[in-house]
Structure formats: structure tokens, C-alpha cells
Amino acid sequence: MDRTEKREFVTGLHEALSATSMIVVTRNAGLTVAEVTALRRKMGDAGATYKVAKNRLTNLALDGTQFDSLKTLLKGPIALAWATDPVAVAKVAVEFAKTNDKFVVVGGALGTQSLNADGIKALAELPSLNELRARLVGMISTPATRIAGVLQAPAGQLARVFGAYAKRDEGAAEAEAA
Known about the structure:
The protein is an alpha+beta fold. The protein contains 6 helices and 5 strands. The chain has helices at residues 3-18, 33-45, 55-62, 86-99, 117-124, 129-177; strands spanning 22-27, 49-52, 78-83, 104-110, 113-116. Strands 2-3-1-4-5 form a 5-stranded antiparallel beta sheet. The radius of gyration is 30 Å and the shape is rod-shaped. The mean pLDDT is 82.
């Protein structure tokens, strides 16, 4: 890369990192192109971005962001993953690390809070934003379903009572006719 390309890269990375709330730092020594492609695809499906970057350029991009604490993690071949949903990016990184020994989660940051690898793993165990939304909708709809059932129950009971009277009256009418 020449100087202008490096400057553009640092500016683009700085803007992307300034707009996010979570960054995961990973070490990816020895991953094949197919493995990195699979990881990028999984990250993309989760709404995350995965970028391999030089440490010096990443240090420059981190200047002026809330993630200055990550500079201590930038040693060796690293890559950054980030997303607006902090749990999604952590889940994908931790799951991929479980299946691939060459991929290691080093740490990360959630806002101004620095996280080590164990913190990222703990974050990955939390439900994602979509799962929380689904649970919330379920909690909201459950009382409505119960209310509808309670409101329908008296009408159903009345119908059964009327049905029983009708059958009794029909039985009495048949007995008189015979």
C-alpha cells in the first residue's frame, strides 16, 4: 500500500470503529483462505464486519475512539470484528474459535469497557438482540392470549349449558311423542 491508500484505510477504519459499540480482537495465525472466507460469511450473516489489519494502521485508526484500550492487544497477526449488536459478533467469534484451533479470541471492548477473552466468552453466552426481541414479544402476547381465553370461556360455558337444555328438551319431546 502506498501512503494515500494507507491514509484512506485508516480513515475508513476509524469511521467504522467510531460508529460501533463492540470490537473483538482475534489472532488468526495460519488460517486458510477458505477458513477466512467462511468466517467472513458467518460474521456477515450476524451483521458483523471482520477485517484483518496491520497493527500500526489499527493503532492510528483507534486514536480518538472509545476503544483506545485495545492498543495493548495489538501484537502479532490480528484481525478485528465489530458490529452494532455486541452479542452477535462475540457469539460468531467464540463459536468459530471452538471449531478452529488457529483462530483465537484475544479480547475486545464493549464501549469503554475492556474485555479479556473470558469476558468475550461470557458475552457470547448471553441471548442476542433478536432472541431478546422474540422473548419480549412472547411475553407480551402470552397475557393477551390468556385474556382472550378467559373472555371466551364464559361464552363457551353458556353455549354448553344451552346445548344441554336443548338436548334435554328434545329428549322430553321424543318421550312424549312415543
